[in-house]
């Protein structure tokens, strides 16, 4: 019996700037709640913004997972679990030494970049996720009150990244995720051992559930571990092949009502 549905946002629940969150997705959540399901956001997005608004709407009394498991908060944004980012000063120093733009996320929903190292495209990303990015130097932050949990580098040159990467990977205790496009490399670092799968385990403990009672719905690299470990793993039709390979079930594309189909599949199995 599935009692909790954890869900990725982009490409799973959110269908892009034109379509947004389909009406069918909200209708499916309401249908699921009437039949006893609970829901939790489980996203790589920074904490807060539209992701938290959606989480509050779907489960106002429950926790939600952000930053790929590095921060978990109430629907009001109060931190419940934090995995502080180690080697923060070394990571920022590496950015300063090489002129790398970066985006720093905290466990309280803060989002910062250094004045001279503003990441390209950050304003567009702010518009998409709804989490304001503010210009601050590391020395101006109160790290005790706002523990950083994730740092994203935005690197426009592959050659530069290849020279920086060995310095980064030499720092112990970090988890590195890399995303390559023709125009840039986006590389995120969080505490080693943290993932959406650890977020699921935290949710299971919070609700007093076994992982077998949790479903995870997703589409991208950062969903693989959670979909593999969940009692029921569901891949969107637009998911990458590694996600589909570990999923128990595959539904339609996010733009074609795939999320609503996933919730209905959970309900059918429960019935």
UniProtKB/TrEMBL annotation:
Keywords: Hydrolase
EC class of the enzyme, as a word: hydrolase
Enzyme Commission designation: 3.1.3.-
Gene3D superfamilies: 3.30.1240.10, HAD superfamily/HAD-like (3.40.50.1000)
Record-level GO cellular component terms: cytosol
Pfam families the UniProt entry points to: Hydrolase_3 (PF08282)
Gene Ontology molecular function: magnesium ion binding; phosphatase activity
InterPro entries listed in its UniProt record: HAD-like_sf (IPR036412), HAD_sf (IPR023214)
Name of the protein in question: 5-amino-6-(5-phospho-D-ribitylamino)uracil phosphatase YitU
Encoding gene per record: yitU
């Amino acid at each position: 019996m599935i009692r909790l549905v954890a869900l990725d946002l982009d490409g799973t629940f959110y269908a892009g700037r034109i379509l947004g969150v389909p009406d069918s997705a909200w209708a499916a959540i309401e249908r699921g709640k009437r039949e006893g399901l609970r829901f939790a956001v489980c996203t790589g997005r920074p904490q807060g913004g539209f992701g938290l608004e959606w989480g509050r709407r779907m489960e106002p009394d429950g926790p939600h997972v952000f930053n790929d498991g590095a921060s978990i908060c109430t629907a009001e944004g109060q931190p419940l679990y934090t995995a502080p980012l180690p080697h923060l000063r070394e990571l920022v120093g590496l950015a300063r030494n090489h002129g790398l733009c970066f985006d720093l996320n905290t466990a309280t929903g803060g989002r910062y970049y250094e004045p001279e190292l503003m990441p390209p495209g950050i304003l567009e990303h702010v518009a998409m996720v709804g989490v304001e990015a503010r210009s601050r130097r590391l020395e101006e932050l109160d790290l005790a009150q706002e523990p950083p949990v994730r740092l994203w580098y935005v690197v426009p040159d592959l050659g530069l990244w290849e020279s920086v990467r060995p310095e980064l990977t030499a720092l112990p205790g970090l988890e590195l995720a890399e995303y390559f496009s023709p125009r840039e490399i986006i590389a995120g670092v969080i505490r080693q051992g943290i993932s959406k799968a650890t977020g699921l385990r935290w949710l299971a403990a919070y609700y007093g559930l076994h992982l077998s009672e949790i479903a995870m719905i997703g589409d991208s690299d950062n969903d693989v571990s959670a979909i593999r470990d969940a009692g029921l793993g569901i891949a969107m039709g637009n998911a990458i092949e590694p996600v589909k390979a570990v999923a128990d079930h595959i539904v339609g594309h996010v733009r074609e009502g795939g999320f609503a189909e996933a919730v209905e599949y959970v309900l059918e199995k429960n019935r």
